[in-house]
Design brief:
This protein is mainly alpha-helical. It has 2 helices and no strands. Helix content is 92%, strand content 0%. The longest helix has 33 residues.
Length: 72
């Protein structure tokens, strides 16, 4: 049962990373447009969001691997 709880905890963490990255990205884009930030500053937040989504993808891959190991 502890393995199931660990998988559930990891699923929630992945969901929070995806949601948090998306929210921060949208807010950064809105602030960038409102405050007339440079393209360089806006690109930084785009790259940071991309890194956040890639990290979430990597976490999902690890979760998938862990769930495959638990099937046996």
């Amino acid at each position: 049962m502890a393995d199931s709880d660990d998988l559930d905890r990891r699923k929630r963490a992945i969901a929070l990373v995806i949601a948090g990255t998306g929210i921060v990205w949208v807010i950064a884009n809105a602030l960038g447009a409102a405050l007339d930030w440079s393209q360089r500053a806006r690109a930084f937040f785009d790259l940071a969001a991309g890194a956040g989504f890639l990290w979430a993808f990597w976490m999902m891959y690890g979760l998938w691997r862990a769930s495959q190991k638990n099937k046996d």
